[in-house]
Amino acid sequence: MLIAAKYEKKLGAATREAFGRTLVELGRENPDIVVGDADLTKSTMTTYFAKEFPDRLFECGIAEANMVGIGAGLALAGKIPFVSSFSAFVMTKGFEQLRVLVAYPNVNLKVVGTHSGISIGEDGPSQMSIEEIALACALPNFVVLSPADEVATRWAVRWAAQHKGPVFIRTGRPKAPIVYNSDAHFEIGKAVELVPGTDVTIVATGLMVAEALLAAGQLEGEGISARVLDIHTIKPLDEDALERAARETGALVVVEEHLVDSGLGVRVAQALAKRCPAPVEFIGLTGYAESGSPDELLDKYGLRAPNIVQAARRVLARKA
Amino acid sequence: MPQAWEGEADLRISEGLVAVLRKSARPLMFRFPEREFTLHIPAHAFEQYPVFGIARYQAREPYTAAEIRSLAERGIIGRPAKLPAARQAAARRRRPRPVSDFGVSNDALPAATLAGGCDMLVASMERIHDPAALASICKQIRRHIITMTGAAKSGHPGGSLSAVEIVVTLYWDVMRHDPARPDWPDRDRFILSKGHAAPVLYAALAECGYTPKETLNTLRKLGSIYQGHPDKRFLPALEASTGSLGEGLSVGIGMALAARLDGKDYRTYVLLGDGEIQEGQIWEAAMFASFRKVDNLCAIVDYNKLQLDGFVKEILDLEPLADKWRAFGWHVIELDGHDIPALQKAFAEAASTKGKPTVIIAHTVKGKGVSFMENNPKYHGVAPTPEEVELALKELA
């Protein structure tokens, strides 16, 4: 399962595509799986489910708050509903409903946000979700998953379906670089150590995991041994793995396609402050982006392997 | 031509069933599909004699009481019994009378098939149709609301008092539910979307037997099952946790859709406040429910004309309200929300309206039943003082 030290970036399916395909499999296995969508089935890829199970796909129109409410009602009546839209819409326009109808009474609703981060590209900031890790993590009872590639997404969606309680899954629009072999094994709340290392740890989630692997390869060329952790479960966070990383490597870089002040980084910092304080560098967004191709945007906003390498050098310099 | 016949029949049942009846204090129902009749054994039917009692029946044919007895006993205990001599003459005098509707089967669902091809049915809480009897329950509920909010020294008495007839008619007459089994999958659902009216719901649940009456006065106190707004974590018999306005109708739609997917015939009722429907989500839900023909859903607007800041028509007017719901594709019934027979009729009309959801716009009086609270904006969110409690209880005696 572990990737060779020299990671080669090869594109696989988009994580939203993996979500849509897995949902159909689940639909075949369990008649209680139902889906809500808000006029984006062709983008969130619930369209596959809609084609095979038209009676179990509730097209809610452009009305996310109502969709979340209907999802809560379906869950309370014994169904296993997945509601889906762009992360930017379902988590913001549905937030209050997620808070009162889902999180607080611990209702068995699954929320899947697609088109997360700036890598959606040309549509621009109104469609880009860079706040929703903060929003999802702010909701008690929610499990927050952020899979890196197709294989991880398939696991995340399947895990969500069998878990009793609310789950948010963050997926993206572009084709995702392949990180895992198809037989990879995941455990909820357990970070995956993709590359062992002793000098510094790169903590990444979602699309940034592939960049972290590339960075680890570059650092190895410079004689720096970088550990790579994939945080597929942002909540609950694997504090044990982070503590081990801090003790064994003494420095960390956190990288996420999210606002740097409210996402994975601050959660990692909190965990380390509790368990084992260590110098950390944070890579993420500091404000809203713009239109452009996904690659151009990731370059311009500093979410690339070279940015991680630089951050690693900075944090190593701070190491006592 | 009458569609059905009903009458009373002597019946002998087993000691075991009598024990079940006594223990549950709940009626037993049996359906005999081949003979097309249903049998309803009231909880008190066997109080006088050990195993002989009187059951009510409804049938498609004008069976005599003796025929019913013979068929029923064969079905329930396997063989017909000989009636004691003292009861034979009375049994002969009983004749079925024609009725217009064969309504019993709607009350229940098959549970177990017994010896003679009959189904033992799980019965709902016994229904009360008599408006006078319902009105006296309303009075009791109002007394609870006053004492609860008085004891809590906070809460929302006004919007609880306005909804009493609606809630009582639903829980005692209209809805299929059983306090002994709050998780009964086929129960009708009630969602208090205007969650701040929790006292009226708590009083009803307690009077039905879901929760203890003695602790109603712990309303809003630390650890109480009677939380400030309905909280399913503390009171699992609630259908949903509510309190943030505008959200219950969507939840009701979800439950109604689940019923449809599961082929179940339970109905979902959502009680909305008038101020509450200023929320945009209500209209998202309204659009959805009519477009998807969610006709197993009934919304009730407790139109008491007042919200926290004052009169609805001065805060953000809802009129023309009936036209709005009609324009959104709903079947609309407007009535006096304190008129129990009108409510009974409206809920029946809602149940028989197919192809669209029904909204009952219930014109009510905020603070209804307590003279100094009626139409007084102050009592939206202010509890009565001990002196006011005393005064109010006198009026509600």
Mean pLDDT of chain A: 96
Residue windows where pLDDT falls under 50 for at least 5 positions of chain A: none
> Quick one: CATH superfamily of the largest domain in chain A?
Thiamin diphosphate (ThDP)-binding fold, Pyr/PP domains
Helix content estimate of chain A = 40-55%
Of all chain pairs, the largest interface belongs to: A-B, 31 and 33 residues
Looking at CATH, the homologous superfamily of the largest domain in chain B is: Thiamin diphosphate (ThDP)-binding fold, Pyr/PP domains
Strand element count of chain B: 14
Structural class of chain A: alpha/beta
Topology pattern of chain A, helix = H, strand = E: EHEHHEHEHHEHEHEEEEHEEHEHEHH
- The CATH class of the largest domain in chain A: Alpha Beta
The third-level CATH topology of the largest domain in chain A is Rossmann fold
According to CATH, the fold-level topology of the largest domain in chain B is Rossmann fold
Distance between the termini of chain A: 34 Å
Strand arrangement across the biggest beta sheet of chain B: 5-1-4-3-2-7-6
How does CATH name the architecture of the largest domain in chain B? 3-Layer(aba) Sandwich
The largest pleated sheet of chain A is described as: 7 strands, mixed
Basic shape of chain A: globular
Q: So how many helices of chain B?
A: 13
The termini of chain B sit apart by: 46 Å
Question: Could you explain how this protein is built, in words?
Answer:
The complex is a heterodimer of chains A (about 325) and B (about 400). By secondary structure, chain A is α/β, with parallel strands linked by helices. Helices cover about 40% and strands about 20% of the residues of chain A. Chain A has two domains: about 10-175, Rossmann fold (3-Layer(aba) Sandwich); about 190-320, Rossmann fold (3-Layer(aba) Sandwich). Chain A has helices at about 15-30, 40-45, 45-50, 65-75, 85-95, 95-105, 130-135, 150-160, 210-220, 240-250, 265-275, 295-300, 305-320, and strands at about 10-15, 35, 55-60, 80-85, 110-115, 145, 165-170, 175, 190-195, 200-205, 225-230, 235, 250-260, 280-285. In chain A, strands 3-2-4-5-7-6-12 form a seven-stranded mixed sheet, sandwiched between helices. In chain A, strands 9-11-10-13-14 form a five-stranded mixed sheet, with helices on both faces. In chain A, strands 1-8 form a two-stranded antiparallel ribbon. Chain A is globular. Chain B has about 400 residues and is an alpha/beta fold. Chain B folds into two domains: about 5-120, no CATH class; about 130-395, Rossmann fold (3-Layer(aba) Sandwich). In chain B, about 35% of the residues lie in helices and about 20% in strands. Chain B is built from 13 helices and 14 strands. In chain B, strand 11 (about 305) and strand 12 form a beta hairpin. In chain B, helix 4 (about 130-150) packs across helix 7 and helix 4 (about 130-150) packs antiparallel against helix 13 (about 385-395). The radius of gyration of chain B is 23 Å and the shape is globular. The interface between A and B is medium-sized, with 31 and 33 residues.
